[in-house]
Amino acid sequence: VASPTPSQLRGLGPDDLAIFLPAAAKNDQLGLHFTSTPVWIKRTADSLGAFAALRAYEIDQPLSGAARRLSPLFCSSPGHPLRHADVDRILQGLLTHVVGTDAAAHYSFHSHRITIASKLRAAGVDWPTTQALVRWRSVESAMIYARLTPANHAATLASALAIDGTSVTAASLPTIDAAPFAAMLLETSQLPLPEAADGGRRRPNLVGKRGSSRRGAGRFDVAR
């Protein structure tokens, strides 16, 4: 539903999704890369989750038709979008109230991107999908910011230590005595060459026959 009414919003079911299009951002200032790709938010039981907050906001501040496309989702005042400085100031104020000034200085809204990327990595999500969900322009950015969580690091290392890591290189393989085969090749090279159709000579074909024979298993016979 492009313009849901308050009654429709109140009657949403457990399988309904919230959809919104992102605006231009620092890594997409002209809106060429991400603005055409919608963000889908699943409804959860969390009353403080994004779906519940967005539904409550839509019910409290309803918009319909063209006004929805012309109005920013988050505003400092009607029609005026929140700027980065406004958002950062609000976050710092909240963090300072909860954890204190010193601890608050270590966090920004970018910390949330790192957190969700790290969670995606711990969940086994591949790099291109992580890049698309967190909206980075390159896979390299995802690989830098999607960090190993302590639990994921410890669990991965523990599972690796439980695996038999024995391996063998060609240099460490035993040397097999090739004398019988070399002798057969030497014998073959001394056989007279059969005549070809054009009167020339041609080499015999070597056909490897593995299996039992009167000569013994695994020997090679020469077919002329």
How would you characterize this protein structure?
This protein is mainly α. 42% of the residues lie in helices and 8% in strands. The strands form three sheets. A two-stranded antiparallel ribbon has the order 1-2. A two-stranded antiparallel ribbon has the order 3-4. Helix 7 crosses helix 8 (139-145). The longest helix has 16 residues, at 84-99. The N and C termini lie far apart (81 Å). 4% of the residues are buried.
**Whole-number average pLDDT?**
80
Structural class: mainly alpha
Distance between the termini: 81 Å
The helix/strand order is HEEHHEEHHHHHHHEE
Shape: elongated
> What is the quaternary state of this protein?
single chain
Note the topology.
Elements (H helix, E strand, L loop, with lengths): L5 H5 L6 E4 L18 E4 L7 H11 L5 H5 L4 E3 L2 E2 L2 H16 L1 H4 L4 H14 L4 H8 L4 H7 L4 H12 L17 H11 L15 E3 L13 E3 L1
Antiparallel strand pairs: 1-2, 3-4, 5-6
Helix pairs in contact: 6-7, 7-8
Short summary:
This protein is mostly helical.
Keywords:
elongated; 6 strands; single chain; two-stranded antiparallel ribbon; 224 residues; 10 helices; two-stranded antiparallel sheet; mainly alpha
